[in-house]
Amino acid sequence: MDEWFEKQRKELLRIIEKFTPKDGTHDTEVPGLRFIRSSRLSEPVYSVYEPSLCVVAQGSKVVMLGQEVYQYDPSSYLTASVQLPITGQVMEASNETPYLSLQILFDMNQILDVIQASDDAIRAGNETSRGLKVSQLNDTLLDAVLRLVKLVETPRDIPVLAPYAMREIIYRVLQNEHSASLMQFAVIGSHAQRIAGVVEKINRDFALPLRVEELAAEARMSTSSLYDYFKEVTGMSPIQYQKQIRLQEARRLLFSESIDAAEAAFQVGYESPSHFSREYARMFGMPPVRDLRRLRSTIVDEMTISAEIK
């Protein structure tokens, strides 16, 4: 990293550290901007990424999409162009040098607006590509990100300046040679934009039976084309995608509500509790009851460690 880049990164680090007094995800007053802090290496965390830009100020993180592994650190950034069920894990962190990062959520209407205003500066085709990308962080994008982040220290400026800072960030990302993925999802009528609609429907109706023929008809594609384009974007088939969404939601229900595994299975769309238990164990490494016990034990251990540090 050159001297200027390192100076900008340290300023980004300072602000994120200032507004993250403890580990976890912290929303800011800037719409769509959140900070993340972790003082220890994490267990795999299962979640669904929204369309967003992720930048690391300190440490590194690994994200798994299906069988694919994406790692990013202060020299790179990650973009998610569509809702994707991922597994994330912090790989570099300690009490002295915690993992610190930010996430900026994208509005596809904002992206489309930037594309339309850019004329020949940004060209969009009709190809599709993976909805998750890791790219090299350059000076212009880091500078734009830092301008948005600095607004958390001057809240009165947020309503006026945040939309302009966000617009520049989107423009800089779209200029990047690896940004075709993000661009396609904002172009009305593109294959990627239609797949995004299918993804949204599966996320909304995950507990209902999945009928690929109906999804294909809604997307104005043949069944085989839908399957191919969907796998190109998400790295998995529609059935595999739905399964991950269902199991993540079931795990959340088990942890946050007083229900048993059978009830969680029915709520997310499984008809057979034994089938649910097998698939749950395949994804999370152990059956629901044992996994829930381990999760609760981990939370207690983390609370104990946090108390000892204080």
Automatic annotation (TrEMBL):
Residue ranges occupied by any HTH araC/xylS-type domain in the UniProt entry: 196-294
Keywords: Transcription, Transcription regulation
Residues passing through the membrane, by range: none
Cross-referenced SMART domains: HTH_ARAC (SM00342)
Source species, domain of life: Bacteria
Pfam families on file: AraC_N, HTH_18
Name of the featured protein: AraC-like DNA-binding protein
